[in-house]
Amino acid sequence: MIVGLGIDLVEIHRIRRAMENPRFIQRILTPLEREYAVTPFQVAGRWAAKEAIAKAIGLKLKWHQIEILPNEFGEPVAEIKSPDYDLKRMRLKISISHERTHAVAVAILERMVIHSPMY
Question: How many domains does the chain have?
Answer without folding.
Answer: 1
